[in-house]
Amino acid sequence: MKSRVKAVRVVRHGLVLSGLVAVLMGTTSPMGHAQDVTSREGIALQDQILALKQAMSQMQASQSEGGAPPPPSASAGGSSAVNGDLVSQLLERVSTLEQQQRDMRGEIDQLTNDLQQKTAALSKQVADSQFAAQAGAGGSAAPAAAASAEPAARPTTPDALLSAGKAALQKRDYDTAHDNAEAALKSAKGAFKVDAQFLLAQSLAGQKQYRQSAVAYYDAYRQSPKSARAPDALLGVTASLLALGDKKSACEALGKLNNEFPSPAPRVAHAAEIYGRKGGCN
């Protein structure tokens, strides 16, 4: 009876070993994972699996030698336990190696995907740079053409300079208004010169250069103290001095306006009243 039990155990171990060998053969099939694993780590894992396969083949051969199970002995139970533990260890080892292979394949796939994404991003950057360079080359022609055409379109006569300066002043382009006023002053005469001086004062006030604007407004008044521009020039002097915080001088300029022009235009009178309240003038 004990001999039969022993024989059954041996047969079972033989079947387990045969199945394990089959698993190893399938794991190391040249048409399977061997094609994916090309790194040194993959080759090392493959060598370990092959070594396990050879060890298990030897165990299977040793179990089948003699054709019949050995007679029962006192150490038979211990031998069966040792064989069972060895088979379990081999199975666990094979499972571990297979998991390592799967992990390695996953890392390879991830690295491949990252490389593809970086390559695509680099290609896009190169394409964007080329497009920007082409756009810059194409767009530079327009500013160059505009720059070359600017001198021909720029006004040169005092009348045209004053018109362009007043238009720039309305757009609050005080720098352009200032340049046109100075250019007009170089050749303007008579009323054009007074208007150019007044425009210069306005542009300086727009640039918040109040000290210079006060002087420029007074020069406009002094050039033609009886002209229609004179009251506006004195108002400009008053406003510039108030902006500087010099209320005393502002009130003196306002007093000069009231004395020399006792019946000014309603617009001038209204502005003088407002400036008088700001300066605390009597």
Structure overview:
The chain is built from 11 helices and no strands. It has 282 residues and is mostly helical.
Layout of secondary structure:
Blueprint lengths: L1 H26 L12 H25 L11 H64 L1 H13 L4 H13 L3 H12 L5 H16 L3 H14 L5 H16 L2 H14 L5 H14 L3
Helix pairs in contact: 1-2, 1-3, 2-3, 5-6, 5-7, 6-7, 7-8, 7-9, 8-9, 9-10, 9-11, 10-11
Based on secondary structure, the structural category is mainly alpha
Largest sheet: none
Could you tell me the radius of gyration in angstroms?
Answer: 52 Å
Percent helix: over 70%
Distance between the termini: 138 Å
Number of helices in the DSSP assignment: 11
Beta-strand residue fraction: under 5%
Mean of residue pLDDT values: 73
Based on DSSP secondary structure assignment, what is the total number of beta strands? 0
- Poorly predicted runs of 5 or more residues: 1-38, 66-76, 135-152
Q: Give the helices and strands as they follow along the chain.
A: HHHHHHHHHHH
- Apparent shape: rod-shaped
What is this entry, summarized?
The protein is mostly helical and 282 residues long. The chain is built from 11 helices and no strands.
Which descriptors apply to this entry?
single chain; 282 residues; rod-shaped; mainly alpha
